[in-house]
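Technical note accompanying the year-one report. For the benefit of new consortium partners, we illustrate the data format agreed upon in the data management plan: each record pairs a sequence with a structure-token string. No post-processing was applied to the example shown here.
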Amino acid sequence: MSQTKNTLLQRNRDPYLRIKILIGVILAGVFLFPIIWMLFVSVKPQDMSITAPLNWFTPPYTLSNYASVMGESDVLLWLFNSAFVGFATTVITLIVTSLAAFAISKIKFRYRRAIFLFFLAGMMVPGEATIIPLFEIVKSMNLLDSYTALILPMTASPIGVIILKSFFDGVPDELMESAKIDGCSHWRLYWNIVLPLAKPAMAAIAIFTFIGSWNNFLWPFLAIVSEELYTLPIGIPSFNSTYSTTYMLPMTVNAIASLPVIIAFLIFEKQIVKGVSFTGIKG
């Protein structure tokens, strides 16, 4: 019996497993090297001259760059703005997309298929093509240069509606009908039955919405003028342009901006991987 098991294990063993692991380690090193280099540069003295690439990774080290950045820039304010805008955008997006998807999937009304096709068509329009009309709409509503201008336009998510609609379609109609017989309203069906079943899809949408908001540059660059409303993608380039002759302080600002995302990835790694596999989004 044991010999049969060993034979089966040998047959199922991938002959290229070691090669795949080696390639994976090399690719991981390629992607991690810029982050490691950034962290080492951020703790190098500002007046230190670098004569060889190896000097970036050897002592001396100092944390004075972080103190200088905190005192000479508004990086903490930029962090707060990015986190606040990202959190608010994510919450509103989840509420709007889940309600829309529930209505299209589980409530029978006229033109619901046409509305769903409208959401599908929205995915074919690149975001850059809507920037000018979006700017004109926000301008006509006197919302420019405000948190509202940063949050509300980014809450429209056709992909979120499509993903949740597909997920809600998998909820048996018999379950919905039995709940209606027991007196459940549409709101209770949405809140108590459908929404708890959609946690994986909601988590995936939340992750990608927050990341998209955190990294968004074009729209905040157009919609914001006041420096106190700058987010990280807007504030960092303005800071880096002031210190274009040295690497240390710009890399320190980038390290401060990157550390929250890196920590969040380490904490929610499983959810992010599940989100990628669930939505089919790559890259």
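Partners are asked to follow this layout when depositing records. The mean pLDDT is 83.
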